[in-house]
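Handout for the seminar on molecular recognition.
Each group receives one record of this type.
Step one: identify the two inputs.
Step two: read the structure output and locate the region that could contact dioxothiomolybdenum(VI) ion.
Step three: write two sentences on what you found, then compare them with the reference statements printed after the record.
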Amino acid sequence: MTAIGDPITRVDGHAKVTGKAKYSAEFAVPHLAYAVMVTSTIPSGRILSMGTSDAQHAPGVLAVMTSANAPKLPQGGKAAVHPPAGRVLSLLQDNLVHYNNQPIAVVVAETLNQALYASSLVTVRYQRETPHFDFEGGFATAHPGSHGKDPADKSIGNLEQGLADGEIKVDEVYTTPLENHNPMEPHATIAEWNGEKLTLHDATQYITGVKQTVAKSFGIPDENVRVLCPFTGGGFGCKGSTWSHVLLAAMAAKVVQRPVKLVLERPQMFGPVGGRPRTHQRIVLAAKRDGTLTAMQHDVHSHTSEIEDFTEPSSSVTRMLYASPVIKTSQRLVPLSLGTPTFQRAPGESTGTFALEIAMDELAYKLNMNPIQLRLKNYAEKDPTENKPFSSKHLRECYEQGAARFGWSKRNATPRSMKRGNELIGWGMATATYPANRSSASVNVQFEPNGRVTVACGSQDLGTGTYTIMAQVASATLRLPIEMVDAKLGDSAMPKSPVSGGSQTAASVTPAVQAAAKQALLALFAMAAADNNSQFHNAASQDLDFQNGKIMHKGQSGGEDFKDLLARNGNKPVGATASAEPEQDSEQYSKHSFGAVFAEVSVDEALGMTRVRRIVGVYDVGTLLNDKTGKSQLIGGIVWGVGLALLEEAHLDKASGRIVNNNLAEYHVPVNADIGEIEVFALNIPDTKFNPLGARGIGEIGITGAGAAIANAIYHATGKRIRSAPITPDMLLA
Ligand code: MOS
């Protein structure tokens, strides 16, 4: 029997490796036309005119859509800016250019190559305006930025007093660069109108969000839009919002009166669909000589676009991680002539822990204290700025187990004290943390006449394992072999579920799976009780049991296959839809996951090369629903941490406003050769104040802390304190 936590292999794995899993651009829609976006080549200004006639007359071209002839949308295309959706899109409703690579036209043709060729013939005359790329220069006029429930400013205590009380101080600036998500699957949309009804195959983390945004933008009822996305080829945040190309595909399909496919070219993934903003983080830590923190200050500047605010809430970690009597944090935004940034894996916590956890390491060295001791000395028993208890927190065990598994006690803290051959070896550690999020979700569970069970939810699986844990929790709840369960998702006609962002899918969807499975079973028992020909006729549901697909009297063996019951009762499915809401009283708690991450690096100073030899992470993420897919998420997050620390950066050409390394060859994400040994462990202590299964999300915590652990290991290896990501070879050459 399947149990919660079992290391079930991905149920969709076979379909994926055999190519049967269909991604959004792969659906064969008859009579399909191909769209290509033309994007701006200047960062700021207006379009004076566009030359489209050559493109229009090129072979196979069906339409060239520009701001001159694009369908007019309600409220100039800004209808969906307000909740529930909310991005400012480029929908050819005006001729303004706010960033380089902004969509300014769409060419539709019979084939992709024809569309591509024709798009190269479109000419544009611009009136240029001065773009803004001076990030640091914008600090003086920066404006406050909030992020969801995180306000722009949050403080406790008197900063001057706290700083004065400190005997030892760290006061440094930490920076992280522009980054892009780079999922393997680019954004892709197929749009097909049938009268007033629109069907979209869209690569997304949020089918319901796409549906609502598109409906609102066109001014049509939600129920006229159906969004399908059975598989998402990675998202990491960029597919959490509905971006311009989705609407542009639907507009183009309307214009040519045919289904239209629009797939972003890889360079178009750098600008119109978000990325991580730059951060500049000043951190001041003040402490007594025994390590007791007296003040923490964390002031963050991040950039946003000229058209919309997005805040990278890097100070969020300083607001909850350590027990300091004085905490002062702020988030400020500098608008630049770039596409609007967005959520990228652990927005805020990834960049925030990079800064804070290096600062803590610096403080530990100044105090001549073990960095774990420093963290234990300031262990937060409650959330310091919210003044609430944690729903569940076992970070101490993470430090202990992590240190033991890594062998931390054998560390000589002196920089440059460990060598292997001509390489310096360094060990560093950091704290990991990510909030526990959860939203309302609905699920349908159905017993099918063919003897199988279907569990369906309008959720998404971006490679995280949603299919698997849906099937697993249904299987465990119904005591049914998982092979008998079919999990279905990725269709907005299915019961509603939240965005697969904020690491919330598992914690939101699985309680609804449990609830729906229990209700479906009651419906099955009721059918049996009402069936004159059933041995369970008139039986009360509390006297019935279900195991291995059989209904039985409690405490007795034998029983009847549910399939036979259905066969006698019209051979139709029976089941139930149920919702699960976040626990009301969980609001009295601060809800977060925690972890401790330890890194070993080797640095060759002749080459400046850093290798991450091994990482050990121990996490307190509540119940681990699936030991295999769950740990795979944690490992994936750590791999992202390696990218943050050593590799990832989008390089901006300030003359054009374009990202110059806008491809997977020059924008480096870690590959297998960059990754040493990664070992992850989960404490597996249920957080039942957060949800009935005790599970918190695990999609994002892996990246947090990992970057700082590596940076701290590099300091230990080399004696060079690098406060700026990525840490590249030029910074480490002897
Ligand atoms: Mo995640 S960056 O919340 O999609």
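Reference statements: The two ends are 58 Å apart (CA to CA). The mean pLDDT is 97.
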